[in-house]
Amino acid sequence: MMGPKCSPQDIVRATLVAISGLILLSILSARSVSAEQLPVRIYTTADGLPRDLILRIVRDSHGFLWFCTGDGLSRFNGYEFTNYGVEQGLSNPRVNNLIETRSGVFWVATENGISRFNPTALRNGQSQIRNLFTAYPLGDEPMSNRVEALHEDHSGRIWAGTDAGLFRLEETNGQATFRRVALSGDMVVAFAEDSEGSLWMSTTTGLVRRLPDGGLLRYAIHPSGLGDLLTSLLFDTEGRLWVGHRGGGGLIVLKPQSATSITAGGEPDKLRRIQCAGSTCPLTGCRQRRLPVHNCRRSGRDDYWRHIPIF
User: Fold this and answer.
1) Which residues contact 233 (CB under 8 A, 6 or more apart)?
2) What is the pLDDT of residues 194-215, one digit of tens each?
3) What does pTM read for this prediction?
4) Nearest CA to 254 among 239, 264, 272?
5) Cα dihedral sign, 195-153-70-67
6) Which residues lie below 8 Å from residue 297, measured CB to CB, with a gap of 6+?
């Protein structure tokens, strides 16, 4: 017994359904494969990096990527790496930081002072010469020449954070030198600048704020037997300061008190220690009842101090 005949329309409809199913199946299979195999590209010394230890990544104004490594500085143009080390005049192979100023000058922080990069020779096609860097020592003791961080502020001044304090670049009669400003007993590891021009610094003994008039304030964040160990700093678009802590303090977010409402007192660049022992927190300006700074809060969305533990 024969079944009912299929019309041409039925055959076409069934064919379209089968093709659609096959297409859907292939799409789902492709998605499954792509989810399992992420498009990760790993670059190592085999690809041209001077060392696999990457300490910092910086993008310059021309779009090149620069890698601060444990064995020199490396520039990536999207296709290949160009490396610069002590053979080209770098003062030390370990590079901790790099900044490009608004005028296009490159300053390199190393374990033995600061080097200024001279790209003129590169523009002339002389990549193998040895005078690509000019070395600037910061002090006589080794700790002051271990440079952790560099920063250009809103007025164009260059600041250097070292294992033995804060230094600033000064130019007199065409001669550039880095002069110690303050914090000779502190390791300065990071900078951030707020919209009012205050310069904030992460140190191993707390958070330091240099006011626009030069006054220095130190805030205890989460002291312990190992110190008050701060790491990274970042201001977000709402003016809040994000503070990384490696001594058990976790991640801290705060909205600082305005510089215009603070009277630091004393001479410029002379440190004043601030403790949150009164009825008002000196960091955020909020009222509190003898609580440690990292627990100080104020009602309202935009003015508060928040402590976020990291698990």
Assistant:
1) 190, 191, 192, 200, 201, 202, 241, 242, 243, 244
2) 999 999 999 988 899 999 888 8
3) 0.74
4) 239
5) positive
6) 286, 288, 304, 305, 306
